[in-house]
Every structure is written in structure tokens, then in C-alpha cells.
TrEMBL record:
Residues 33-79 form the HTH cro/C1-type domain. The lineage of its organism: Bacteria, Bacillati, Actinomycetota, Actinomycetes, Kitasatosporales. CDD domains: HTH_XRE (cd00093). It comes from the Bacteria. Residues 1-30 are annotated as: Disordered. It comes from Streptomyces lomondensis. Pfam families: HTH_31 (PF13560), MLTR_LBD (PF17765). This is Transcriptional regulator. SUPFAM superfamilies: lambda repressor-like DNA-binding domains.
């Protein structure tokens, strides 16, 4: 049965083109389809792990089978067959309802006129924000909702990336926080897609994800260099929504009397114009997908 599983995986990856999988094609492929290491990246597992699966030297867990089914774009029948070959119950991937920000939380965001604040949901999706947060980071309203993700912006948006004086340190922390979410919800298809995309498109993310470092999202300091108001040292803290513990309000503040406090007030003054959305504003665009 293990050889049948390996043959099935090889056949499916052989039929999936790099373009269909959202991967770059260097034009130097000797055989059609995806390479083993590309399937491993899309499924967020190590190439060695995937090779052992194809060779019948390793059994796959249910979360890995779910990830492989998504990476290989399997149909429902193919997915059921994959689980049957692996001796697992196919079941169906857990569909979780979209997160909705409570009206009280939205009002709180809008009332924080001198404090940049945003609400992050599962996988660091940006669910809501106030005008000062948009002025500080980017115009979230211009980003399609399904790509409005903070970690993706940190790695894929050149303007957001340029904000951070010590980008490496901050980006590593983002990856560690995302890894913590993966431990809590390993079968989340959105998380698997995000990790697969960033692993393929950014070598730093790929390396740091492989380090398996974890961190909780609690509090810290961000050192930013904003194009309009210069350098800012901002303390950030996290408030968890009691109605949905997977929603976190992130507020950024500066000590009164400091240049950073004055800079935030200046930023609020110069950007106090109607925005595209009452809870958005800002200004950059993601790198195009290639």
C-alpha cells in the first residue's frame, strides 16, 4: 500500500504545472510537473519528510495529508483516495466561519484618535484598523480582503518592509508568532496556504520557518522610520477580545514628551483627511505575484 501511495503522489505532482501551483518556472525543467521540494514547500513540510512519504519510508499524519491534498489541488475523490491509501479517515477539512469584529471593538478603534490600533485575527489577518494605523503602515482598504494579512505585508510589501529599522529582528518575531498559531491550529487551510506562499517566495521566511522558533503575541517595541514623520519608537501591547479569543487588538503608543509621541500627533494631523474607508487609510502596494 505504501508503494501505491508513493505512485499516487508522484502521479499527481507530475500533472500539476508550476503556474497552476503559483510557482515560478525557470524554464529548465527536464520533466513536467512539480519537483518534490516544491510540493514540500507548498505543504509546509521538509523535503526529506516528503521524499520519505513517496518512498514509503514514512507514514503521514492527518494534518500532513490535508496539507498535501491542498498543495496538489486534489479533487474530493482524489483526497478520499489519498486518505484511504494512508489508512486514515478522510473526513472533511474543518470550515471555520469568517471572523467578525464586534461593533464595540470598532468603536474603540475609532475613538483612539492619537493611537494607531488594529485588530488581527487568525493567521495575522488584518480585520479592522483605525485611520492612524493606516497612516502608519499602509492603506489596508486598497488590499484585497483575502490578502490583507500582516505577516504577508511584512514580507511582500516593500513600503511596509522599509518601515522597520531592524526588519530582520521584527520579521523573525512575526514568523515565530505564526509558528505558534500553527501549533494551535495545524489544519487551518488559510495558514497552510500563507506559509506555502511565503516559503516559496521569500528565502528568509523559508529559513526562519524551518527554525521552529515560537513566540506569543503579547507586547514589545517597534522601531520605525516613517517617510512622513521620521523615526518612531513605539511600544505595542495586545488586548484579546473576550467574545473571540482569536481576535487581538494591537495598540501602539509612545511616552508623552518624547519625539515619537510628537511624531504620532504630527502624523495624525497631516493625514486627517477622509479615507477610502472609515477604518482604513495609508499608502503602499504589495509586490506583484510572480
Amino acid at each position: 500500500m505504501s508503494s501505491e501511495l508513493g505512485d499516487f503522489l508522484k502521479a499527481r505532482r507530475g500533472e500539476l504545472s508550476p503556474a497552476t501551483a503559483g510557482l515560478p518556472d525557470d524554464g529548465r525543467r527536464r520533466v513536467p510537473g512539480l519537483r518534490r521540494e516544491e510540493v514540500a514547500l507548498l505543504a509546509s513540510i521538509s523535503p526529506d519528510y516528503y521524499t520519505r512519504l513517496e518512498q514509503g519510508r514514512r507514514r503521514a499524519s492527518e494534518p500532513v495529508l490535508h496539507a498535501l491534498a491542498r498543495a496538489l489541488r486534489l479533487s474530493e475523490d482524489e483526497r478520499a483516495y489519498l486518505f484511504e491509501l494512508s489508512g486514515k479517515d478522510a473526513g472533511r477539512p474543518r470550515r471555520r466561519p469568517a471572523q467578525q469584529v464586534q461593533p464595540q471593538l470598532r468603536r474603540l478603534l475609532d475613538d483612539l484618535t492619537n493611537t494607531p490600533a488594529l485588530v488581527l485575527g487568525r493567521c495575522t489577518d488584518v480585520l479592522a484598523w483605525n485611520s492612524l494605523a493606516a497612516a502608519l503602515f499602509t492603506d489596508f482598504a486598497l488590499i484585497p480582503e483575502d490578502r490583507r494579512n500582516f505577516v504577508r505585508l511584512v514580507f511582500r510589501d516593500p513600503a511596509v518592509r522599509a518601515l522597520y529599522i531592524d526588519w530582520d529582528y521584527m520579521a523573525r518575531a512575526c514568523v515565530a508568532q505564526l509558528r505558534m498559531e500553527a501549533a494551535r491550529d495545524p489544519e487551518n487551510p488559510r495558514l497552510t496556504t500563507l506559509v506555502g506562499e511565503l516559503s516559496v517566495r521569500d528565502p528568509d521566511f523559508r529559513t526562519w520557518w524551518g527554525d521552529h522558533r515560537v513566540a506569543a503575541r503579547t507586547a514589545g517595541t517597534k522601531d520605525l522610520r516613517h517617510p512622513m514623520v521620521g523615526e518612531l519608537t513605539l511600544d505595542w501591547s495586545t488586548l484579546t477580545d473576550a467574545a473571540d479569543p482569536e481576535q487581538h487588538l494591537i495598540a501602539l503608543t509612545a511616552a508623552p514628551g518624547t519625539p515619537s509621541h510628537d511624531g504620532l500627533r504630527l502624523l495624525g494631523a497631516v493625514t486627517a483627511v477622509p479615507s477610502a474607508s472609515p477604518r482604513s487609510a495609508g499608502g503602499s502596494a504589495e509586490l506583484p505575484d510572480t
